[in-house]
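Protein in question kept in full:
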Amino acid sequence: MKQLNRREFLKLGALVAGGAALASCAPAAPAPVPAAPAAPAATAAPKAAAPAAAAANKKLEIFSWWTSGGEIEALNALLDPFAKKYPGIEVVNSAIAGGTSSGGDMKAVLQTRMMGGDPPESFQVHLGGELLGSYVAANTMEPLDALYKEEGWDKIFPKSLIDIASKDGKPYSVPVNIHRSNMMWYNKKMLDDIGAKPPKTWDEFFQIADKLKAKGIPALAVAESSAGFAAHVFETVLIANMGPEKFAGLFNGTTKWDDPAIKTSLEMYKKILSYANPDYLSVGWGDVNDLMINGKVAMMIMGDWTPGVLWSKGFKDFGWQAAPGNEGIFQMLSDSFGLPKNVKNREAALNFLRIVGSKDGQDAFNPPKGSIPARTDADMSKYSDYQKWAMDEWKKDKIIPSIVHGAAAPVAFMTDYMNAVNVFATKKDVDQTAAAILKAAKDAGLQK
């Protein structure tokens, strides 16, 4: 792979700097980037390895940001069937081994490796625009349509999911799961102690929050030491005030970003934050679960990677439901793996992707992760009550995309949106934040 010059490197860096951006409307590709040499088709037989390459062919290098409780267990469970089917291959998760376990660190190191012509065999990426608008646009990834057909994934993955993974009719990554982001988790004992049921609406939330406040207990956990968590929660407030069609319309041009519901939602969110843990500006995303486990807050709005974390900490006295005002609406994201061009061990990379998309792989990975499989033929006996409930919801609910977790908008908008809500979490200025979000939408081409 030809190395990119500094100017080309920075242009692609601008696309991926925002991290988790799984866009249904990908950002414009960078100005001409030197194309990587064409890789052989996915079904081509591998060439015999030269002696110097023999060692490389015994190693599979991947990147992921899975390091928390539930995530490590899930990744190890995924690698187990790979080891059994393809023995003798050393699997190295370089992001973890190199001390760059967080998503941001992992993505920065990956960007340097990819642009320097030294890609890992595969890497974790949110399905869709996060990959399509960056490395696919830069011609550094192989299309996987031949592999999809060979493995029968074109028939076992939902078509809507394949469409999100595809550019010009060809998929570029393999989904290993489906997550739902607009979920509320609650400490059962804390709500029982005040005689409350989990709130179905924000009005009900405020009533419960007042009862908790009278006991000196914050109602909602928030962790906004850096941008992202508050923006995640705010999406559910937007959905509650807009409904699924109008929310989805923000990204297809049918809803304007200066719609009155934006300011209405910000006013509501200002009130919601007054019931959050008062130190939320100094709490990190990775520490927020402990607030609910330790009885310091009663409820939390977070995606369904949460049960995996809670189970790993030995906490089981929790319940779940859709976030207030979000019942019947499934806000989705998906983790996936792709195939960079010119990897050292292409055959091992293809075999890893085969496991990622396999029934055995997905039924091993998803139970500890808390997510549900992307495949439609899961072994239901392996899944928790929550996951069985989520699978039923996935089939019947209205599906909409997540902003913060990559399914809805270009990288540029996602980053600006998270930063705007981060400032709001500090200043509580409705007009300023509404203007900042509108500007971000215009800058990203979501509104003229």
